[in-house]
Amino acid sequence: MKSYHQKFVSETPLDVYPTGEISGFPVSPGMFDLNGATPLQNGVNFTIHTCGGTACELLLFHREEEEPFAVLPFPEAYKIGDVYSMIVYGLDIRDFEYAYRVDGPWDPEKGLLFDKKNILLDPYAKAVSGQRTWGTHWDPTYHARVVKDSFNWGDMPQSKKELCDLIIYELHVRGFTVHESSGVQNRGTFAGLMEKIPYLRELGINAVELMPIFEFDETMNAREINGERLLEYWGYNTVSFFAPNTSFTSVNEYNREGTELKTLIKALHDNGIEVILDVVFNHTAEGNELGRTFCFKGFDNNIYYMLTPDGNYYNFSGCGNTLNCNHPVVQQMILECLRYWTVNYRVDGFRFDLASILGRNEDGSPMNNPPLLRTLASDPLLRNVKLIAEAWDAGGMYQVGSFPASGRWAEWNGRYRDSLRSFLKGDCWSSWDAAWSISGSGDLYGMYKDSQGGNYAGYNSSINFLTCHDGFTLYDLYSYNEKHNENNGWDNTDGANDNRSWNCGAEGETNDPEVLKLRYRMIRNACAVLLCSRGTPMFLAGDEFGNTKYGNNNSYCQDNEISWLDWTLLEKNKDLFEFFRFMISYRKDHLVIRKKLPDAVCGMDSIHTHNVNAQDISIPRDAYTFAVSFAGYDREKGKDDLVYIAVNSYWEDVSITLPDLHKRGFWYLSVNTYGDGQGRYFYPQGQEIRITGNFIMRPRSVAIFTGRPY
Hints:
By secondary structure, the protein is of the alpha+beta class. Among the domains are: 177 residues, Alpha-Beta Barrel (TIM Barrel); 112 residues, Golgi alpha-mannosidase II (Immunoglobulin-like, Sandwich), CATH 2.60.40.1180. Helix content is 20%, strand content 22%. The protein is built from 16 helices and 33 strands. The strands form nine sheets. Strands 12-13-18-19-20-21-24-25 form an eight-stranded parallel beta barrel. Strands 1, 2, 3, 4, 7 and 8 form a six-stranded antiparallel sheet that branches. α9 packs across α10 and α13 runs parallel beside α15. It starts with a helix and ends with a strand. The N terminus is likely disordered. It comes from Blautia caecimuris.
């Protein structure tokens, strides 16, 4: 459904009429407060702004042509402040593409790069031409298209799921279905992902986090290594923040760009699945001093980017430039962008790549109370939208547990990833951090109040994860001691070296049954711990059936079998999929894992850590075995909700005791990742095994117990 303003300007006759003529086109001053290009009933409104530019021209192109068929200079009367706006009458949006040229001073040492020869993409463009075919960029310049939005959202309400109730599934739109084994008709597209919704429902996830789907240039830095063409596959090099990636659509959508994506989002919502977008506001595809000038550099380079005193680019992103996020003009653009995707695409949340950059001042220094973060946290339209920070950047700022405005923002919990990876493979001295992490990372996040004065537990700030796009898959985490990025062409120097992985006795692929048996147990351990940790779990698409990247932990450039999901593994590792499915269901069934409940009738504390003897709540720093208990009274079910998760990273059997339920019931074994020898690793309700006395934890295993009354 369009906003009122959109319907008004695009469908209602306006009391506007031509007041002059430029290059043969009837024109008039436009709507200065409406950024971008907006279709009207009798023309198109074009609005753009530049602080340092002295003149601006609108260029009109026929589709897929490099030379404009019309150039329309903006008269001074069509400028208010720094904003140029013009309505051009009689245009059919299907007949043209557009861009701008901006004139002004050239003084690189002051960051001024105005050059009237540069053809510039509208920063507020809703669609970018020349990007339709994946891997092909036919035009040396970017042109924009005018988009008419007629998508009908109906009466679909905004999702109100709490963050801690989500199970987030991170995926790459192309890589998810482009492999021929995916079995979908529209491989590698939004439509292909839509065909997999029944699978997502069967798995049980209720949120997808889409890696970048804003328009990006995958051909940027394209090269050939060992006969394989390498592309910017991941998409962390934004070309346009308001435009969806047209190469992710199954059909051409001329002037209706976004329709297939909106259809996908509506279908996901109809199936109870939220949509979170991975957004990259820390840098753009324009790069450093050697990069291209196709948009922001040409409008106001010294405003949009952080510049050193000599006019070069600060590089806190590791990608050549850094957006100047706390400049008021850039703040406005980011806010308007997020509002646009929230209103027009009904997105449920945003994950901010290298989000610590959003808290840097214009000189690159960290800010105590960054205005951008404060603005996003308090914006009325974004009130119910999830805001998730990757709370670090490539400039050395690491803010996990201390990201500004954390009462509103959640964080990718890097401490959770590192401590659990270490502990699960048997590293000493990580038990305390691991126990804290499973318990909700209260040492990092504590408690806070929201703006309405309500109390929220700090675990709502923690996005718990062991794997993501950046690093090993879960299968590779237990198949490789070292990264194997040779195919990336950097002599294996790229990618993280601190992986805390373990190959279980053989590097890479093996037929050794004992090694394979151990690897899959370690994967089950990781899954069980992740889905029984307080906070919000997230895992990488394909982990649930043992997908591999063959040891590559930085597959940003691999548009091939290294990155694509191999769906034949789903059948091969069906038991692993079923384990993930059960653990997701178990988490959903036990509210006490996700949040603090009223006190349990049985008298157990709401949350505790335990030594091998459950009565001992002190854990040695170098412990190999410990447990975490969650207890509370579930009012909806009218009974106590009791969960006890025991983790043994030791390579021998360990005997543990369970908490005394004071004759109010028994503990039942729900999960044993070691298995019963018959290939059974979990026990649905009604099939659980009642435990009396001690329980023997098998080597390197996780056991989950459910407390039930007599």
